[in-house]
Amino acid sequence: MVAYFTASVVGKKYHLANYRKIIEIFRKKGFEVIADHIINVEEKDIQLQSKEKRLAFHNQLEKWIGGCDIMVVESTFPSISVGYEISLALHRGKPVLVLYSEGEPPSLFEYHTNDRIICEKYTAMTLEAIIDDFVNYAHGGSDHRFTFFISAGIASYLEDVARKHKMPKSVYLRHLIEEDMRRSK
Predict the structure, then answer these.
(1) If we measure between CA atoms, which residue out of 110, 95, 184, 104 comes closest to residue 147?
(2) Which of 28, 100, 108, 126 has the fewest CB atoms lying closer than 10 Å?
(3) What does the angle CA 156 – CA 160 – CA 163 come to, to the nearest 5 degrees?
(4) Under the phi-then-psi rule, with left for phi > 0, alpha for psi from -120 to 50, and beta for the rest, what region is 103?
(5) pTM (2 decimals)?
(6) Its Gene Ontology biological processes (predicted)?
(7) pLDDT at 167
């Protein structure tokens, strides 16, 4: 399996450790991760490229996205070009995991209804469980994705409980439902 990783090159100044941790988890799970174009490039290198080199890179980027099985995005630091890459992946039917570690979800994806994109806030404690859930979903291990609206009070409670139990909100909710199913038998 091939995972295409993308994130803001400028944001690397602030979030490189998170980028590396995400890549490491996917590699540990047996994925080939395409990430050098983010990890090994500096902003000044991009700005100094000729038009021909930028076009050649864009063609390569389209090949990487077209050939990957999943896309993984670290979106804590905003980037228009990352949004463009997400759009390319969705257009090609690729499952996309959008991760962010601070603040609110990226505004363009907060209310996105495409079932191929999953947007999750993570911490060092929840990152691996979120990735496990996404990999299961991408492999077809999940039966259905279910989205519903909740009040601000419920959202706040879920954030607190997820942080307390050190697990993603979706995992907490799934455990509640599974427990209720066991009691109902």
Answers:
(1) 110
(2) 28
(3) 135
(4) left
(5) 0.75
(6) deoxyribonucleoside monophosphate catabolic process
(7) 72
